[in-house]
């Protein structure tokens, strides 16, 4: 099983957790850190998550590459072979990892990340069939 931590500035982490709960009922499968919403020092929470992995694979999502939350996570995971950090997170990648039934490795993470990239959605052309039947094709 994979253990998942979502850490962000503000309430983004708990917002993603809320979305996970609404979409899958699996919001309780992730640990969240909402940093800088009060005076709480969140570094011990990161350490606790890593200590409790107990040989399991850990995936930590952060909101911003190079941001303070990401920096503190990176300091704590140094020399941890069973922990992966994904930064610039979005709901699709978190969903993909939460719903993954198999153990996660680097190759699998790269596949999930590629499939979860942001996309530009353009308005359909005038002659495009927008019926429900064509949507599923």
Automatic annotation (TrEMBL):
One GO MF term attached to the UniProt entry: kinase activity
Alphabetized InterPro entries for the sequence: Bacterial_PTS_sugar_comp, PTS_EIIA_man-typ, PTS_EIIA_man-typ_sf, PTS_IIA_man
Organism: Candidatus Companilactobacillus pullicola
One CC-aspect GO term: membrane
Taxonomic lineage: Bacteria, Bacillati, Bacillota, Bacilli, Lactobacillales
Protein name: PTS sugar transporter subunit IIA
Main location: cytoplasm
Keyword Transferase recorded: yes
A Pfam family it matches: EIIA-man
């Amino acid at each position: 099983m994979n253990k998942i931590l979502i850490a962000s500035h503000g309430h983004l982490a708990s917002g993603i957790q809320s979305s996970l709960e609404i979409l899958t009922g699996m919001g309780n499968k992730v640990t969240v850190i909402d940093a800088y919403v009060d005076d709480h020092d969140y570094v011990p929470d990161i350490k606790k998550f890593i200590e409790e992995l107990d040989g399991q694979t850990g995936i930590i999502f952060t909101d911003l590459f190079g941001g303070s939350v990401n920096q503190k996570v990176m300091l704590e995971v140094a020399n941890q072979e069973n922990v992966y950090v994904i930064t610039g997170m979005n709901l699709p990648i978190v969903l993909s990892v939460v719903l993954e039934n198999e153990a996660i490795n680097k190759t699998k993470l790269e596949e999930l990340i590629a499939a979860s990239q942001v996309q530009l959605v353009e308005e359909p052309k005038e002659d495009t069939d927008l019926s429900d039947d064509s949507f599923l094709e």
